[in-house]
Design a protein that fits this description.
This is HlyD family secretion protein. It is a single chain. By secondary structure, this protein is α+β, with helices and mostly antiparallel strands. It folds into three domains: about 110 residues, Efflux pump adaptor protein, beta barrel domain (Elongation Factor Tu (Ef-tu), domain 3, Beta Barrel); about 60 residues, OB fold (Dihydrolipoamide Acetyltransferase, E2P) (Beta Barrel); about 160 residues, Orthogonal Bundle (Helix Hairpins). Helix content is about 50%, strand content about 20%. The protein is built from three helices and 14 strands. Strands 1-10-13-12-11-14 form a six-stranded antiparallel barrel. β11 and β12 form a beta hairpin. α2 runs antiparallel to α3.
Length: about 400
Amino acid sequence: MTEESVSSHADAQTQDASAINKRKRLPKIILAIFLVLAVLGIIYYFLVYRFYESTDNAYLKADVTWVSPRVAGEITQLNVKNNQEVKAGQVLMKLDDRDTQARYEQAQAITQLKEAALSVQQQNAASQNAVILEAQAGLDQAYAGLKQAQAGVNQAQAEVARTQKDAARYNALLREGVTTNQRVESVQAQYQSAQAQYQSAQAQYQAAQAQVKRAEAGIGGAKAQFGSIQASREQLVADVNSAKANVNLIGVDASSAQVVAPVSGTIGDLAVRLGSRVNPQTRLLAIVPLEKTFVEANFKETQITDMHVGQKVTVELDAYPDHEFTGHIDSFSPASGAEFSLMPPENATGNFNKVVQRVPVKILLDRKAADPVLRPGLSATVKVDLRT
């Protein structure tokens, strides 16, 4: 065997031994790497991961306002289009309001007619009130005449009593021969005159009583007539108020011919065109306030144990993977999402399977000037820092 062959054989043995040693060290290296990664994972879990809750069941939302007309009509003017920005109070479209304007003018005419009737009634009431005052004056005068007649009756009655006593006294004196027949006859004449005056006073008193009754009947009739007028006045006032309310109601319909934007935002889902016929409660379009978008994240019920309002949140959007958004928890839904579905689950059955429920959590974003436009419906991944 030559020296070169011996040398090459020795090199081959050395290479084989080195390869064997490498193969023996490889499992140890892999095990060491695995142990290091496991230790790092444990450290990361205890120091970082367990203080975060995350979910990819999250989406951008916004308080979308659906615009509907208050009245029916044909669109005669359309001032907006899809994806257009509008301001609150801006006129979006106009409806044909000719029939509404006609009804408004008719209601105004009816109101004027009823107000005129009320004015006539008020004049009648004033006239009747004057009649009552005149009748009251007549009644007062009748009462005064009755009182005067009563005084005359009393006076005549006293005079009859006095002359009766004088006649009796003079008759006694005549029997005693103290006075003369002529004097007795004179006293008798005075007594008869007093009786005649008493009868006349009684007749005047009865006439005064009749006058009082007539005056009382007159004022009673006048008051009854006034009461009837007042009752009709209340009806007329009610009619006038009803007519004015109808004018206001139709006026609201007339002003509703202009459809205005209730909030500021961007037009979306425009469902009508110029000339379209619309009815009340028809969805014309949606207004989306893009500057007020928020995130609705659906966390598992087992994840919200340590979550509370105000905790900091990191948000990643699929549409902007290189941009990280921050925010905070604003509120929690009062119930799980299943409770608000059209067909809530009925668990009081024999086929029960426990399913982890999702609780919607509202997250407000900390908006910055450099942030891109956020549109409702975009998918998001949310991570909540439980330490905050």
